[in-house]
Amino acid sequence: MARLVLAAFVAVSAVGLLGTGGTIGVINYFAGDLPSIESLQADKLTQTSRIFDRHGTLIEALYHQNRTVVPLSKISETLQRATIDTEDRTFYDNSGVDYRRLAIAIGYDLTHGSATLGGSTITQQVVKNNVLEVAEAQSKTISRKFRELVLAEEMERRYSKQQILELYLNTINYGNGAYGAEAAAETYFQVHASQLSLAQASFLAGLPQAPSAYDVFGTPDQLELAKERWREVLDGMVSVGDISSSAASDKRCLTSPSCVAQSCP
């Protein structure tokens, strides 16, 4: 897999040297069927259906994926920053592909004989989760990786960073059946995504990497992994200057699922 990614990286880099004509030709071939923003925008996503009685009391929630779509303005800025700090620190500066990060990941994978470090940006994750068909997204072919990289760059040309981040935060899996920030905030903390505290936001930002492994309602081992991941997110936010080390230390209170749900002080 690492060698395939390396070949894709070289190929995409070469595209930039082909000149305008060659680049446009390659982009049209691989990205010509990129869905319109209208078909990708968050309000088109499948959401949870809620049944209320005549007094407004919730009777039942029906869903294939538990999701409540909200605009980016309704998602805590702290969660936005925690997510970017954790998933893609150059999000606002890269073109959809972070070539430096990708090269580091490829070098690590080649020297360690694995493909575990990863170098995907938030935009690449949106492409993989929302644009590619499931079978293609799960494949490990050179054509799939190349198409993902080209589509990520083309998506950046067509859509704003805010649109891409909104799509990501409304579609990503946070575990326990919660898809998107609003459903995650309600599932873990019984609050809206706009109301998340630093402790809550930093906890949620770490879950998408491995939501099953970080299940705080699961086994003691899963709880410990969730706590370790939370600390990684907080440390990452400190390292980029979004929070102070004292603020991060004050929020490291995760000891049990009930503690998470009650938002420890």
Provide a compact summary of the structure.
By secondary structure, this protein is mainly alpha-helical. It has helices at residues 2-15, 20-31, 37-40, 77-87, 99-112, 122-131, 134-138, 142-158, 161-171, 181-189, 198-206, 220-239, 245-250, 257-261; strands spanning 49-52, 58-62. The protein has a single domain (2-261), classed as Penicillin binding protein transpeptidase fold, CATH 1.10.3810.10.
Q: Strand tally, please?
A: 2
Structural class: mainly alpha
Strand content: under 5%
Secondary-structure arrangement, i.e. CATH architecture:
Orthogonal Bundle
Task: Please explain how this structure is put together.
This protein is mostly helical and 265 residues long. It has a single domain (2-261), classed as Penicillin binding protein transpeptidase fold. The protein is 55% helix and 3% strand. It contains 14 helices and two strands. It has helices at residues 2-15, 20-31, 37-40, 77-87, 99-112, 122-131, 134-138, 142-158, 161-171, 181-189, 198-206, 220-239, 245-250, 257-261; strands at residues 49-52, 58-62. The chain has a two-stranded antiparallel sheet. Strand 1 and strand 2 form a beta hairpin. Helix 6 (122-131) crosses helix 9. The longest helix is centred in the last third of the chain and has 20 residues, at 220-239. The chain is globular, with a radius of gyration of 20 Å.
